[in-house]
Specification:
Blueprint (H helix, E strand, L loop, with lengths): L26 H17 L18 H11 L17 H7 L4 H17 L18 H17 L5 H9 L10 E2 L33 H6 L9 E4 L5 E5 L8 H18 L15 E8 L8 E2 L5 H11 L2 H17 L1 H17 L14 E7 L19 E5 L7 E6 L2 H8 L13 H16 L5 H5 L5
Parallel strand pairs: 1-2
Antiparallel strand pairs: 2-3, 4-5, 4-6, 6-8, 7-8
Helix pairs in contact: 1-3, 5-8, 5-9, 6-10, 8-10, 10-11
């Protein structure tokens, strides 16, 4: 019996009187006969037990016939262990066994040739051999990915362009937009640790997409020139940086639109639950993240090899490098102390874990998202996982009617918390009392907003 108490075999009754092989039964001889029979099936020759064409003589003993059944695979004429009384037709036996060894290997070679003929490029790599013909959608994705790969080969003059773009914006002569926005901790939606923002509680408007006119009707201003936005205290909390002073920057916009369209065609987005995302458009993220259940900072997973290759091609596109570099340079210009804080944190992360891969060299943002459209319009939302007193770089591009795209760069607040906790999760630290944790959070918030620039520092005006 087995450990469960059931019989080891379903057969619980006696089989009956055992069948005895005759005294002259030679097992080795009959194995040799079966082997020769198999060889005959391959070569097309007919070999009998006695070496002549014809049938095996199995009529000498009924018990012998039953044993021969087990050796030759022939069904008995009657009963479960009945005897076979007729001759064995080896010609039929060979035909029933299908093609021989040579036929089998020839068929396998034909299959391999067909698979190779319909193999498709694995985006960044050699021609692959598919197990089956891919669907049309997969073929189109691979073609679009190959276009991205080809575009990425053009890196001519990129270093000079990046240097030029870095100095192609200025804070001088900009007219600031003054607001009544307060940076007092009690007036903002920030968690008590000050690393993250609070999640939005009012979801009623989250799924709403506004037209430009609707925004103007509810009090927004339409602004088309670069301008800094100030808090009540005179701190620069956001900047409309415009674009580099480059007469050919519109070419970058056109190229970015083409790249985004290629990426959308090549990318295979994962299933998305209702209510997720920032709007009705496809997006893909890359870089270093921490949060959402992660036990440590990690590179953003692309889920599939194809998507990973698409993202790898995106990051090395020359226009993408220029847009990313300009966002980083504008951040450094308008918030130099905060920019330095981002850079030191990213350096500490990558020094402690060399496996972490930043998106771009000489860029302080840990993560980036390509919003691939085709009509990228964000619904009202709060990026609560980003550093609460930090900034992100948002670049809009496209023709806007009908194509709209955007590229964003940012850093998760959890990355700063990880580094300042000694490169370990905060849960591993000694538990603090609520008042002590709150006091530390308030101090962190004050130090954080202290990294923001007063407009008077940047414009040369006397601080009030």
């Amino acid at each position: 019996q087995t450990r469960s108490g059931h019989p080891f075999s379903p057969w619980v009754k006696d089989f009956g009187v055992p069948i005895h092989a005759p005294k002259d039964f030679d097992l080795a001889e009959h194995i040799r006969a079966v082997t020769e029979r198999d060889a005959a099936c391959t070569t097309g020759e007919i070999v009998t037990e006695r070496g002549t064409a014809g049938a095996l003589d199995l009529e000498r003993d009924s018990n012998y016939a039953a044993v021969a059944h087990g050796l030759l695979g022939q069904e008995p004429a009657r009963g479960h262990l009945g005897t076979y009384t007729g001759p064995v037709d080896i010609t039929r036996e060979c035909a029933d066994r299908g093609p021989g060894k040579d036929d089998y290997h020839s068929k396998q070679r034909s299959k391999a040739r067909r698979r190779k003929a319909r193999g498709y490029t694995n985006v960044i790599g050699d021609l692959g051999v598919a197990k089956r013909a891919p669907k049309r959608s997969a073929v189109e994705r691979r073609k679009a990915a190959q276009v991205l790969r080809t575009r990425a080969l053009d890196q001519h003059g990129i270093e000079a362009l990046l240097e030029k773009d870095s100095g192609a914006t200025t804070s001088q002569g900009s007219l600031p937009i003054e607001t009544e926005f307060s940076l007092a901790m009690e007036d903002v939606h920030v968690c008590k640790t000050a690393y993250l923002g609070k999640r939005a509680q009012d979801e009623a408007e989250r799924g709403r997409v506004y037209t430009p006119q609707e925004l103007v009707d509810i009090g927004f201003d339409y602004i088309s020139t670069p301008r800094p936005i100030l808090s009540r205290e005179g701190k620069v909390i956001a900047v409309l940086v415009g674009q580099p002073r480059d007469a050919n920057w519109h070419d970058v916009n056109t190229e970015m639109q083409e790249i985004m369209e290629n990426a959308r065609d090549a990318y295979q987005p994962p299933p998305q639950k209702a209510g997720e995302g920032r709007g009705d458009f496809i997006s893909m993220s890359t870089g270093i993240s921490y949060g959402g259940g992660q036990t440590r900072p990690m590179n953003v997973s692309a889920k599939t090899e194809l998507n990973a290759n698409v993202m790898g091609s995106l990051r090395v596109q020359k226009p993408v490098k220029r847009v990313a570099n300009f966002g980083n340079s504008a951040f450094q210009l308008f918030a130099p102390r905060l920019h330095e804080y981002y850079g030191k944190t990213l350096d500490a992360l990558c020094h402690a874990d060399p496996g972490l891969q930043p998106n771009f060299p000489n860029n302080v943002f840990a993560s980036a998202t390509f919003n691939l459209g085709p009509r990228t319009v964000s619904v009202p939302h709060r990026d609560s996982m980003n550093l609460s007193f930090g900034m992100c770089a948002i670049t809009a591009m496209g023709t806007y009617e009908p194509r709209r795209y955007s590229f964003t760069q940012y850093s998760a607040g959890g990355l700063f918390r990880w580094v300042e906790s000694g490169h370990r999760p905060v849960k591993s630290l000694p538990r603090m009392k609520s008042k002590e944790a709150e006091a530390l959070g308030m101090d962190r918030w004050e130090r954080g907003i202290g990294l923001l620039s007063f407009w008077s520092e940047l414009s040369g005006e006397e601080s009030g």
